[in-house]
Design a protein that fits this description.
CATH architecture of one domain: Alpha-Beta Complex
Bound molecules: arginine
Distance between the termini: 12 Å
Strand content: 5-15%
């Protein structure tokens, strides 16, 4: 949609309708897909004529609620990096397309988290805010997820907290966030940019952030070190694209798979880097990689994650079950005559890979739409750089 926003008033190259024509083609593909999968809605022709006229008159068109729900669900179904797609039909959709200003968007994000957490029985949910339109930008959430832990840069060059979020932490502080209590797990405020506004920070209310204290089933280090993680992974830095319409602010969540936290967030050397500390605590010989101290510490950390979420009554998948479910999903979709696009390097779990079924096969790598797309400038935003939108 950037092409709309930056389009010169008097286009030189392509004709004045080039953007409209591209939008029309994508809209038509989407409506045909929708009607073919939900034949009860009738043939697409009437709806197509309506959309064609709306695009001619206004340069854009508005999805019906049914189209929005179907589009969001299929965007999940088409997410080739996601192993959890078996339940794509269960995605709940909150239609908040009338919201364009930073403050109501931030409040609705907090409410999203409450509804998604659902006291521990996590519900897959997406909240859709105003889309982009010709000459009008849409609201934006700068956080890559609604809940992220701050990463404070310290004098000695290290980071307190999650180094991945150091850029956003810098930015939040520049925008007036006073900072949290300086633990390793301070929840960052939301950074939201309304349609006619500069980015502003909004603290998340405590009751919107469900967290799980991590405890190893047999050992005390989880509690002693104050380890914790949040219950809801809610991606807020991707753009929902349906039938040529872009919804840049459309936070969505499923539930966690244990390895995301235990084998990546808390284990990666450029994240919390806990494996050496755990290995030392367990008395393992860390002088040589060949003692497999990393592997052994990794297993104990992942046991702690699964055990703690179970004990807290918070939904969490494990990589063995989720792999089986994904294969069920593949088979089910193939029976319906649909391809399941998948990226092997993302689908395969980051530990014990070859013990899971998803390792032992290849996948179709098509990129289908509707989809969730990365904002082109998301990486720069994660580094905390301010990016001005073209009007
Ligand atoms: N891997 C990301 C994280 O650890 C979350 C990505 C989405 N995950 C999910 N289970 N829906 O925070």
């Amino acid at each position: 949609m950037r092409k709309f926003l930056s389009r010169p008033k008097r286009p030189t190259g392509p004709g004045p309708d080039a953007a409209g024509a591209a939008l029309w083609r994508e809209a038509a593909d989407f409506v045909r897909l929708h009607r073919s999968e939900e034949p009860g809605l009738g043939a697409p022709e009437g709806r197509l004529a309506e959309i064609r006229e709306e695009i001619r008159a206004t340069g854009t068109y508005r999805h019906t609620s049914e189209e929005l729900v179907f589009g969001a669900r299929v965007a999940w179904r088409n997410s080739n990096r996601c192993i959890g797609r078996l339940y794509w039909r269960s995605l709940r959709v909150r239609d908040l397309r009338h919201l364009t200003d930073a403050e109501p968007v931030a409040e609705a994000c907090a409410e999203h988290l409450r509804r998604a957490a659902n006291g521990g029985r996590i519900r897959p949910l997406i909240t859709v805010f105003a889309p982009e339109a010709p000459g009008r930008a849409a609201p934006r959430i700068w956080n890559e997820q609604l809940i992220r832990y701050a990463g404070y840069r310290t004098a000695d060059g290290s980071v307190l907290g999650d180094p991945r979020n150091a850029g956003l932490t810098d930015l939040a502080l520049r925008l007036g966030w006073p900072g949290g209590p300086h633990t390793a797990f301070d929840v960052l405020p939301l950074v939201v940019e309304g349609v006619d506004d500069k980015p502003r920070v909004f603290e998340l209310p405590a009751d919107a952030v469900l967290e799980v204290a991590l405890e190893h089933p047999e050992d005390g280090w989880g509690g002693e070190w104050g380890l914790r993680w949040h219950a809801v992974p809610a991606i807020s830095g991707m753009c929902l694209e349906i039938g040529g319409i872009h919804y840049p602010a459309a936070p969505f969540n499923g539930w966690y798979m244990g390895t995301e936290i235990g084998a990546r967030n808390l284990a990666d050397t450029d994240r919390y880097d806990l494996l050496p500390r755990i290995a030392r605590r367990l008395g393992l010989d860390t002088s040589d990689d060949r003692t497999l101290w990393k592997d052994r510490a990794l297993v104990e950390l992942n046991r702690a994650v699964l055990h703690s979420f179970d004990r807290a009554g918070v939904t969490m998948a494990d990589h063995h079950a989720e792999s089986r479910r994904f294969v069920t999903h593949l088979e089910r979709e193939e029976r319906k005559g649909r391809t399941v696009p998948a990226d092997w390097s993302w689908i395969v779990p980051p530990m014990s890979s070859a013990t899971t079924e998803v390792f032992h096969r290849t996948y179709d790598t098509a990129e289908l739409r509707p989809c969730f797309a990365h904002h082109p400038e998301a990486a720069a935003r994660a580094r905390g750089e301010s990016i001005r939108r073209t009007p």
